[in-house]
Amino acid sequence: MTTTTTPENLRTPARELLNKVPEVTIWFWVIKILCITVGESFADWINMNLGVGLINTALIFTVVLASVLGWQLSTKRHIPFVYWLTVVVVSMTGTLYTDILTDSQGVPLALSSSVLAGVLAVVFGIW
């Protein structure tokens, strides 16, 4: 008699976390680059055409980002629409805050990039 392993027996916390991320292939990177490009372009378009100003636009998208991140973190499995929407909204919000730092506050891009890379490294280290 042989024993079969069912998917329920293979579920571990680490495996469940991986279920929320698409497989990293060449198509993953193509889609990711397109999402980032669309996100940055849309953020710039919103900032220029919405008429509420850079800071207010950034605040609006911060609320949108919190909502989308909450949705993404509450899912039990990978849902492509939610995942890629999160990628686009992160890109949009990041672009807006970068514009605030560089254009409005005069912070050099090299400095803000270095500081944010350090913060990201700390977050990954804690994670």
UniProtKB/TrEMBL annotation:
Keywords: Membrane, Transmembrane, Transmembrane helix. It comes from Streptomyces gibsoniae. This is Holin. It comes from the Bacteria. The chain crosses the membrane at residues 26-43, 50-69, 81-100, 107-126.
